[in-house]
Design a protein that fits this description.
Chain lengths: 763, 154
């Protein structure tokens, strides 16, 4: 292939590395009103009264909005960027009298300067009726304190939601006789694991600016992964027709799912719609940490039954998920904790996956790379590591006995058949890369430090089957260059480039012959957006089909100009030919602009009935200082099956970046709350994302398979990459210390205290 | 307050509030490469040169730069393009938001130490956070650039 699978430089790379002004706050008009938000200091409270008159007198203040400016009995909405009708309950208002977590919005302040807005924020007087808060997610379900007592709360989908029970969702999925199979197993393990509401912590915080366009419509320019969902959600929130809203995105400074939720858009949209003046809202890092859309905190209990030979016969998995104050992505993230962990054990005869997703008075959760699979895989893979240990089996060997193979039907994965997999080869590859046979399990370094290994496997999906829609539009322009219009969101992932690679492969042209216009609701064909590992697989297929359709039109016009039948011509990317007659692409383009009735433009939408899983295997080598508890990652080896990598460079960097986020979750990144519900890790000072001194060496191998339903054999890569470090590092720490950590992150304090406790118990 | 300084070789005079930080000052004068990624001097995105020494411009009062020379990536376009091409060839720029700060600090490293070891690279750039790349691709790009430089050194 000429462009697909080639390590092509990203189309925007040189603009980015030379620091050109392409991000939101670089391009927002300089006379924008500055918008900031007054946030609740209480975890659960009613605003009894709010006094804004003094604040409004600050010179430069243009508007202050409170719950009194929003119909409290009006329809609620969700900020989750999901296909309508959203599974997430409709539980929000732009400004709500009832504030539900520390950081919930109490007032919107807009002014001509930041100084004026900062001053006004301090002068707003709020009287709160402070209510008892639900701050322990174990006690949330059926708690007498309701996070959403209101009657205009609404669930559009049957996800088991009930606001009078603090339930955002619940469910029970069974296959076979779990209890029967478990009772016949040689060994049954029951273990509980806990992961926190970790932050995506993309370098560019949430931000949006808004203007009124030529036609009096609201134009939202936002750092978002979901322009079309954003248009629908903001229109509903403001109670205006969708035709009056346009959403576009500039370059995005990282997303990782955070920007799959409407986090910053509502407030400047509200201000600009009311005042008809441009406005912008730039979240501070503190706001991004305390009031955004992080991972769902989950506690997962696994009951796993196996034979003494290590064959997993049944898995019973219960997930308790904390959606926080609002239900964004609550009913859907939880699904992945079971549906993208259990299927790795293909010999299981029965499974049960049941769950409760509860409301609490903590920050609302959202979508973060891995989307529930990360949490589920930590639990299941860790349980299997414990099983291997109990059976004195090698962790790789036990996986090999259990994994599904090409052609297998996967009952725990919606009954889909596995069309493509190199999972077994990935296992072999990582075993070799990590030096497993020489190093496993542990080596005393002779200086108070030990080095140890651990591993884990992972899967994910490629888009949401039967739901996600990917689209592409292509047209031919003067001199024969193409324009590709998409609404998939390049957030650094490089999808503008990889999709262009797909189009160029089909159109037989070099990359400099195509320009990409990404994500404008007025101009792009409908696309669900970039999330759920859908872009390469779903939008990629749409792009391939779209390019094929455009080829046909080019041939039709070329044939017409040659005076021959369209069936008799060929197109090699440069010219349409029939025998020794030919017309160049440039001449066809010119001909299309004079006396022509054939539009050289095509649009194609694609939705897939299946969601082929990419696979990954990872092994961690850690060094633990037994005196201080310091745990250092020395080496991470990983192999990934993403089908055909559309761009091996970008696939590799996706893998390396995702692995380091997983490493962060395992060792550093923690979210904790004070007893009053204030989040402690509210800056990058407290919330430690890995620096380049923390990452050790990361080696990634790509082991391609060929997915017949994907574009040129591609599956997804974006999310699967974050999953393996959690179980792998936890198991490595076990081999180093003899301590099983089932709550992440594993900190030096945990290790030292764990060792002290073990010693005390021994005495 | 009145401030005059040299920004990317050009003399600038401006009347600014006393509490304005250098980051906001350079952005106010069209140098948008410098970014704010945190409020706690943790991320390195706002790195600029003050008299050729890299500083976190979010933590330097603009008035501290009075009469001095300030350089942002806008003033180092040739070096940025030359070195940045090696990052781009790895696909390690990713979202690009942290790139200008990394470029500035890396250029400072190359000027100070033209032949750094891997450990020296990691230590010098430790304050430049990146959430996309996992740092490995950046390291490959830096090492490829240094090797190319070495080969082409007069």
């Amino acid at each position: 292939m000429k462009t697909v699978s080639q390590p092509i430089r990203k189309l925007d790379a040189m603009q980015l590395v030379t620091g050109q002004p392409v991000f939101l706050d670089d391009i927002a008009p300089k006379d924008c009103l500055v918008v900031k938000l007054l946030r609740s200091p209480h975890a659960n409270a009613l605003v009894e009264s709010i006094q804004t008159e003094t604040a409004k007198k600050v010179p430069g203040i243009v508007a202050i909005y409170t719950f009194e400016d929003v119909d409290q009995a009006g329809p609620r909405f969700t900020c989750a960027g999901q296909t309508f009708p959203e599974p997430s309950p409709q539980d929000r208002l732009v400004l709500d009298r009832h504030v539900r977590f520390v950081g919930d919005v109490v007032a919107i302040v807009a002014g001509e300067t930041e100084a004026a807005v900062d001053k006004a924020l301090k002068l707003i007087k709020v009287n709160y009726q402070v209510l008892e808060a639900v701050l322990d997610f174990h006690t949330a379900k059926d708690n007498p304190v309701l996070v959403h007592p209101e009657d205009n709360w609404e669930a559009l989908c049957p996800v088991g939601a009930d606001n009078k029970r603090n339930l955002c969702a619940c469910g029970d999925d069974r296959y076979g006789d779990v209890e029967g199979v478990l009772s016949a197993c040689d060994i049954v393990l029951e273990r509980t694991y806990h992961t926190k509401a970790c932050q995506q912590a993309m370098m560019e915080t949430f931000r949006t600016y808004c203007t009124i366009d030529t036609y009096g419509r609201l134009h939202i320019i936002s750092s978002t992964q979901i322009v079309f969902h954003c248009r629908r959600i903001v229109a509903k929130a403001l109670g205006i027709p969708k035709s009056m809203v346009r959403v576009t995105k500039p370059r995005i400074g990282g997303g990782f799912g955070a920007k799959q939720t409407v986090v910053s858009e509502l407030y400047p949209a509200f201000v600009t719609w009311k005042t008809k003046r441009p406005s912008k809202l730039i979240f501070s890092r503190e706001e991004s940490q305390i009031a955004s859309s992080p991972r769902h905190e989950m506690e997962i209990t696994v009951r796993l039954g196996a034979t003494k030979e290590g064959i997993v016969k049944a898995i019973d998995l219960y997930t308790l998920s904390n959606t926080g104050a609002y239900g964004e992505h609550g009913p859907t993230t939880v699904g992945l904790s079971g549906h993208k962990s259990i299927p790795l054990y293909g010999k299981a005869e029965a499974f049960r996956f049941h769950y409760d997703v509860v409301y609490t008075n903590e920050m609302s959760a959202g979508a973060y790379r891995g989307y529930g699979a990360t949490q589920g895989l930590f639990a299941v893979e860790s349980t299997v590591n414990e099983l291997a240990d109990l059976l004195h089996m090698d962790p790789f060997a036990i996986r090999k006995k259990n994994i599904p193979h090409e052609g297998d039907q996967m009952p725990a994965y919606y009954g889909e058949t596995l069309n493509s997999s190199t999972l077994e080869a990935c296992l072999d590859k990582v075993k070799e890369m990590s030096g497993w046979d020489e190093k496993f399990p542990v080596k005393d370094m002779g200086n108070g430090k030990v080095r140890a290994l651990g591993m884990g496997m992972a899967m994910q999906g490629s888009g949401i089957s039967g739901v996600d829609v990917g689209s592409a539009s292509l047209k031919l322009n003067d001199e024969g260059f193409y324009t590709l219009r998409i609404a998939a969101a390049d957030m650094g992932t490089g999808c503008d480039t990889t999709l262009a690679q797909v189009a160029c492969e089909v159109l037989d042209c070099p990359m400099d012959q195509i320009v990409v216009l990404g994500a404008d609701t007025d101009a792009s064909p409908y696309d669900s957006g970039s999330y759920a590992s859908s872009t390469a697989y779903v939008t990629g297929k749409a792009t391939e089909q779209c390019a094929l359709a455009l080829r046909e039109k080019i041939c039709a016009l070329g044939a017409q100009k040659l005076g021959v039948s369209a069936e008799d011509v060929t197109f090699d990317g440069k010219a349409v030919s029939c025998g020794d007659q030919s017309i160049s692409l440039a001449d066809i383009a010119t001909a299309s602009m004079c006396g022509n009735n054939i539009a050289l433009e095509a649009t194609y939408s694609h939705s897939s009935p299946v969601s082929p899983p990419p696979f990954m295997v990872g092994a961690a080598e850690v060094e633990v200082d037994l005196q201080t508890g310091e745990c250092t990652l020395i080496h991470y080896s990983a192999a990934v099956d993403c089908g055909t990598p559309l761009n091996p460079n970008l696939a590799r960097v996706q893998a390396e970046g995702g692995l380091l986020q997983g490493i962060g979750m395992a060792l550093f990144e923690n979210i904790t709350y004070t007893p009053q519900g204030r989040m402690m890790e509210n800056s990058l000072m407290q919330y430690k994302i890995p620096s380049r001194l923390d990452s050790g060496r990361i080696d990634v191998a790509i082991v391609p398979s060929f997915e017949p339903t994907g574009p040129f054999g591609a599956k997804s890569i974006g999310e699967v990459v974050i999953n393996t470090p959690l179980p792998a590092i936890a198991d490595a720490v076990y081999h180093a210390t003899g301590l099983r950590f089932r709550t992440l992150p594993i900190t030096p304090e945990d290790i030292v205290l764990g060792r002290l406790n073990t010693k005390e118990n021994a005495h | 307050m009145n401030l005059s300084l040299t920004l990317n070789g050009k003399l600038i005079q401006d009347d600014i509030p006393a509490d304005m930080v250098l980051l906001d000052f350079v952005r106010r004068h069209g140098c948008y490469s410098a970014k704010r990624g945190c409020e706690t001097a943790n991320c390195g995105l706002c790195t600029v040169f003050l008299d050729d020494v890299p500083v976190l411009s979010c933590s330097v009062l603009a008035l501290r730069a009075a009469g001095r020379k300030v350089t942002t990536l806008e003033g180092l376009q040739e070096e940025a393009a030359e070195f940045g091409a090696f990052i781009a060839d790895q696909g390690a720029e990713q979202c690009g938001f942290c790139n200008p700060g990394l470029m500035m600090n890396a250029i400072a490293l190359f000027r100070e130490n033209p032949d750094p070891t891997e450990d020296e690279i990691k230590a010098y750039l430790a304050g430049n956070l990146c959430r996309c790349s996992g740092y490995e691709g950046q390291l490959r790009g830096i090492q490829a650039y240094l090797a190319w430089k070495k080969e082409n050194r007069p």
